[in-house]
Amino acid sequence: MADSRHILFVEMGTGLGGSTRCLVALVRSCVAQGWPASVALGYPVAELEQADAPWQVLPLYAHAAHRRGANIRRQPNAAPGRRTRAASIGAFLTSALLADLPLAHHLARYARDNGVDLIHANNELLVNRVAILAARLAGLPVISHQRGWSWPSRLTRLLAAAADRIVAISDFVVHSLTDAGVPPDKIVRVYDGIDAQPFADADRHRASARANLGFDPDDHVIGLPAVLLPWKGHDLFLSAFAELARRRPNARALIVGGSPAAATDLAPALRKRIADLGLTDRVRLTGHVDDVAPMYAAMDVVVHASLQPEPFGLVVVEAMAAGKPVVAAAAGGPAEIVNHAEDGWLYPMGDAPALTGALDYLLDNPHLRAALARRAPLRARRFDLSTHWTTIRSVYDERKRCQDDFTPPGRGTKSVVPVPG
Asked: Are residue 367 and residue 278 in the same domain, yes or no?
């Protein structure tokens, strides 16, 4: 194709979760466009490392750079807006930057040798620092996806200045970036997209999915799909479910997700908590699941229980695409996705009694559950993968035009074409 561009995607995060699934979808969209793609990975991703995959994979598992980002995520007090903590993180990462130079040179050399036209860093500014540095070394434009909170530090601002564009996955993330000192004109908001088709026929597979998981047809199955990290609210969910289960003998809970490879495995602590609550026979933990569509099929209600504002909330959109009533914390991305009492239900973040009350109300009102389930897929269509790719491509197109229109200093000016928000 005449306008074909070779994109090098770089993922140096902690693994699992929505960030990884969105990267897989983005790479596939790029290749479906007819563009060549390469993917540099700091951890294994089975969906991207198939032997016959039509893209190149650059494994970077021997490098420990991405684990520094994981260490930050493991901290129980890691939250946006904590300036003293952010300052210490910034100082730590500034010193770590020198250790990242060899890896950045490696990526830059790969980009030059393989005709890469643009580097797309998948995670968030601090984790994306190697990719941003590699792009500067290679003289290439770089897009930094912001899939998490922004730490207000000097390094955050320096990395933002070095990136050509920052793609924020929600208005909440946009505000997080600007609060951290990133200029608004650097940012474009692009909601994550999903392929709704795998989730569209969830109800057809309900009986088989339940049988495979050991649930009875008349059980009320409350699901929590979330990577096992402390801030995802598993303890809150279990507290709310324990109260619900006390009054509802047929209530069951399904927790879907595993721990990132570079983080502490929370599964043993969760099992102990479940046993302490007397819920061993009522709660099922699946661990990491590659195909989550059957998990949604087994659920009657899907819960989002994060204790900090979710940057986007991919599982919320997936559950809605599956036609499931969603009960989500009213903060961050989910508050932008869900229209309360129209296509989902919102409750105050961190409030276990409110979560129990919302679940009780929905289980007592099957007509309301049915109405939410009917409207949810219509809302999910607004986060269609094709729309997501079209907007991401417009960001790529803008960078190409800027390159084409660039004249060295002293001979002209750089022309910037606005990107649709």
From this structure: yes
